[in-house]
Amino acid sequence: MHRYVWLLALAASFSASIHAVRAETPEERGAYLVETVAACGNCHTPRGPDGAPLTGKALAGGVVIELPAFTAIGANITPDIETGIGGWSDAEIATAIREGKRPDGTLIGPPMPFNFYRHISDRDMHAIVAYLRTVPAVANEVPASEYRIPLPDAYGPPATPVPEVPRDDKVAYGAYLAGPVGHCLECHTPRVGGHPDLENRPGAGGMELPAPGGGIVVAPNITPHSDKGIGSWSDAEIKTAITRGVRPDGTELAPVMAFAWYANMSEEDLDAIVAYLRTLKPVSH
């Protein structure tokens, strides 16, 4: 009898979980992705002198990213008609994210990681666009970015349909979150010819990034190498580094990483990302 009751409870719990996933609206899914894994606000929400996001300015643009090759200024991606993307169609917003092309045909420059975003699933892209439509419109004219390098004619061929990645395949889904959505490997992979060396050294670190307040920080090695990477860290320690920016020894990581956004990721998604990182080739770098 007790076993029968336990099985009924388990079935009810499983049914409720499936129902919850199915009940997730595009806006809810988009809100989760934009505000956690993708951390769009890390580049598109202006901050005050204390580094905290400015109230009432979510995704209104203005974040300056200064590197030798460019001075990039995060765009206003709120639905404001004049200064944001309120006049763009859903397809035009998706094209801007996946292909780096504005409705007028001009290219969006780095550091937007189009090589990753073009692999966001169609369902998730629809969800992201749906959520961006719900964000409060903020009138905020953002200066144009300046590039001291030539931009290409295009970042590749037009994006093609992208299927859903099954969430029950933990490693594959973790690769999807750490790759196309969260673009972790964009910053944590050494560059060759200006592009991440994903074929040979994914996750091996080494990219130089501007630090808040000035200076340069180097993205760490997140491969499972026992000495140079995170191979000796426990799952819990890796999750703490992602969500709080604290290493196992208690020292803090540079706040270039979007800890404030990652802190709200689901435990399931964090587990998937950790499972994927464990599969990377250990690299001493």
TrEMBL record:
Signal peptide (from-to): 1-20
InterPro entries: Cyt_c-like_dom, Cyt_c-like_dom_sf, Cytochrome_c-type_DH
Name the record gives this protein: Cytochrome c
One Pfam family it belongs to: Cytochrom_C
Protein species of origin: Kaustia mangrovi
Keywords assigned: Heme, Iron, Metal-binding, Signal
Superkingdom of origin: Bacteria
Any one GO molecular-function label of the UniProt entry: heme binding
Cytochrome c domain location: 25-136, 169-281
